[in-house]
Amino acid sequence: SRISIAIHGGAGTLLKGEMTKEKEQAYRTVLRQALESGYEILEKKGSSLDAVEQAVVIMEDSPLFNAGKGSVFTASGKHEMDAAIMEGKNLNAGAVSLITGIKNPIVLARTVLEKSDHILLAGQGAMDFARLHGFDFKKPEYFYDEYRHEQWNKIKGTENFQLDHTSSKDDKFG
Amino acid sequence: TVGAVACDRNGNLAAATSTGGMTNKNWGRIGDTPIIGVGNYANNNTCAVSCTGSGEFFMKAVVAYDVSCLMEYKNLNLKEATREVIFKRLPKIKGDGGLIAVDSRGNISMPFNTEGMYRGMKTSKTETMVAIY
């Protein structure tokens, strides 16, 4: 079969007019890195499951995207992350939710798929499972990002929450 | 949110998605990402899907599995099924966002209905593409 990989870096992150040439180049560099690292696994006859995990790990390790290191702030000033992974061969899946301090949530989701009889683990229980399987936990400073903090400051203390994009309803179909 | 979908040499599909959620979120709010069949899904008989957008609407529309069902039950192809969901069904309930999907022949579709999209694709038959909308 033709080997293929596609990635996305979410919806939004920078507001209109904030995308400078330098930032655009930075985004393109990480997107390309993620793409190439996943594709290389496919080229070497590796599995699609390994390829998608690796591509997501590259993007989780970058502060530019709202996942892993670049996660946004919650109302209580923490970083709560979710992740899921699934393979089409046998419908095996693994997912984690409401986890904090984990450098690569997608790797924990894969561990749930491979080393538990469950599919979705959440909150403290998911973190206990991570500790059981030798995951190390990052300090909050690892997840700190000035831009994300500013995003949060603008709506901190209000009832508002913000997705990573300004949702505009006039048809931006593509 | 970040995500990836892939088809390997054996035609096996996989999908992975990871997110930091919403800025200033409260009450243990969970979006579509960790819910299999909503923000992330893979089935060798149809497609692998990874979504990004307003999670609440993706949950109401059960987006990822919806794409797979349209292929399985209505015999739509990947492009038709993904466009039906992102251009018609999701906007109907005021939902916004996008997805990336691949089928077991290695075709890729990446529709969206809102701004601020970061995408990339590479296959053994096409050029590498990285694009920002």
The tally of strands of chain A reads 4
| Beta-strand content estimate of chain B | 25-35%
Shape by Cα distribution of chain B: globular
Coarse shape of chain A: globular
Order of helices and strands of chain B: EEEEHHHEEEE
Q: Largest beta sheet of chain A, briefly?
A: 3 strands, mixed
Name the largest protein-protein interface in this structure. Answer: A-B, 95 and 83 residues
Architecture overview:
With 174 residues, chain A is an alpha+beta fold. Chain A is 39% helix and 14% strand. Chain A has 5 helices and 4 strands. The longest helix of chain A is centred in the N-terminal third of the chain and has 23 residues, at 21-43. Chain B is α+β, with helices and mostly antiparallel strands. Chain B is 26% helix and 32% strand. Chain B has helices at residues 55-61, 63-74, 78-92, and strands at residues 2-7, 13-19, 40-42, 47-53, 97-103, 108-109, 117-123, 129-132. In chain B, the strands form 3 sheets. A 4-stranded antiparallel β-sheet of chain B has the order 3-4-5-6. In chain B, β1 and β2 (13-19) form a beta hairpin. Chain B is globular, with a radius of gyration of 14 Å. Chain B starts with a strand and ends with a strand. At the A-B interface, β1, α1, α2, β2 and β3 of A face β1, β2, β3, β4 and α3 of B. β2 of chain A pairs antiparallel with β2 (13-19) of chain B.
Please supply descriptive tags for the structure shown above:
heterodimer, A: 174 residues, alpha+beta, 3-stranded mixed β-sheet, 14% strand, globular, B: 133 residues, 4-stranded antiparallel β-sheet, two-stranded antiparallel ribbon, 3 helices, 8 strands, 26% helix
In a few lines, what is going on in this structure?
The complex is a heterodimer of chains A (174) and B (133). Chain A contains five helices and four strands. Chain A is α+β, with helices and mostly antiparallel strands.
